[in-house]
Amino acid sequence: MDWFVYVLRNDAGIAYTGIATDVAARLLKHNAGTGAKFTRGRGPWRLIHVEGAMQRGDALRREIAIKRDAAFKALLKSRDDRA
Questions:
Q1: Is 83 inside a domain boundary?
Q2: Tens-digit pLDDT string for the chain (83 aa)
Q3: Is residue 23 part of a domain?
Q4: pTM strictly above 0.70
Q5: 20 to 30 A from 32, CA-CA: which of 10, 16, 43, 79?
């Protein structure tokens, strides 16, 4: 099965990184309040970055790398501000 790493951002500038096999469906869940506990009540969320397809283990490793990389997340946020 193919997995994707995604980064979401809300209007407050908060970023959320996760993995999913269907990013569009996962985004709908986050915005409906049935996604991750962290995203509940903080939406609406919009997709700002996607990577994949990859194996689940690779996606998990990349998710962790993105979460640790403050410079990369800042770059994503700055690109999103221009949109």
A1: no
A2: 899 999 999 999 999 999 999 999 999 999 999 999 999 999 999 999 999 999 999 999 999 999 999 999 889 888 877 55
A3: yes
A4: yes
A5: 79
